[in-house]
Amino acid sequence: MLATQANYYQVRLEPQDWLANKPQSPVTLLCTRRSRLMKIGQTVMVGDRVVVEEPDWQGLRGAIGEVLPRRSVLDRPPVANADQILLVFALAEPALDPYQLSRFLVKAESTGLEVRLCLSKQDLVTPAEQTSWLDRLRHWGYNPSLISVSQGQGLANLLSHLQQKITIVSGPSGVGKSSLINWFIPQAALRTGAVSGKLARGRHTTRHVELFELPGGGLLADTPGFNQPELMALPQDLAQYFPEIRERLKQATCQFSDCLHHGEPNCAVRGEWERYEHYLEFLTEAIAYQQVLERQSNPESALKRKTKGKGHATFEPKLASEKYRRRSRRMEHQVLFNQELEEL
Ligand code: GDP
Ligand code: ZN
To answer: Residue with the nearest Cα to atom 17 of ligand 1?
Structure first.
């Protein structure tokens, strides 16, 4: 499912399903959802693989009768089955701020999805500066793609990392995300410019999301830019969001199994690596976040109320994997945290 519009869902069919009926071009059906799905509380998310019942090939309509099990679920933006996050940062204009980049990286890692880093506006900095950033970020555990949309550089290579995957494009505003999406998918701008009513108005809100199809296969979701994402990480999870720490913990273990790596004796993580300071800063934030969660007197009832009000967060009846279960718990924390903020 590619996009929602009021109570309608745009569903792109698999080639084997439309070729026999509409051989000309890929077919998108405008679908409703069967009321039995509503009765069992089954939501339909962008990215969902669904079963369409009674397709009307003339009117290009149908009804979603079933949602297939999800590989992954993201809450913000709400996307099912995403494979990776493409984090875009500009090398210049705006200047690359390592702390802000680190924050976005940690937030992206906290989803459990693969994280791919892309440095844009390559044309604005010298080759020496480019090399220096590449070296630096390799020490952070990333191998960024360098691109320039205005010079058409690095785009074919970047595209090869996006094929046949669902990718969420993220990053601060002004780094060139829209330019990048429009370069790959010229119809994206047309499509968003052409839609009217609810879809157009909702385009720049945080909960709106739409998938665009890449040439050669694969889907891109754009997200509105945000400058300082809330981390909402738990202290004991934070280390896993740093590739440098994951690597260190593969080589050695800390003396204490619940080590938070902030000065405990015989810690394998503490040491001379660039982002250790970022880790410590984010840890302070994570501890404060945990305290907010702990102040919730009765998390169970709070969660229920919230879920009824907004109608999301417990949409997944099936827990597919350990990875998913962890993410699901995190989503609950997120709901609780938002509620606390609202009450404040
Ligand atoms: P978004 O906010 O991340 O979607 O960024 P936009 O795509 O709107 O781009 C912000 C500005 O950066 C625009 O003025 C673009 O023309 C410019 N821009 C985008 N890509 C490049 C690039 O590769 N090189 C240069 N020099 N400017 C770019
Ligand atoms: Zn440690």
So the answer is: 176
Q: Whose CA is nearest to atom 22 of ligand 1?
A: 121
Which atom of ligand 1 is found nearest the CA of 88?
A: 3
d(CA 65, CA 212): 23
124 touches ligand 1 (CB under 6 Å): yes
The closest ligand to the CA of 276 turns out to be 2
CATH number of 3-69: 3.40.50.300, 2.60.120.260, 2.40.50.140, 2.60.120.560? Answer: 2.40.50.140
Residue 207 has a CB neighbour count (10 Å cut-off) of 12
Which pLDDT value is given to residue 57? 85
Is pLDDT above 60 for 297?
no
Fold classified for 235-305: Ribonucleotide Reductase Protein R1; domain 1 (1.10.40)
- What's the whole-model pTM score? 0.82
Cα separation, 251 vs 177, whole angstroms: 37
What's the sign of the alpha-carbon dihedral 3, 5, 8, 10? negative
Least distant ligand from the CA of 172:
1
**Which range, of 4-8, 180-184, 215-219, 315-319, averages the lowest pLDDT?**
315-319
Assess whether pLDDT exceeds 60 at residue 315: no
Ligand 1 center to 179 CA (angstroms): 6
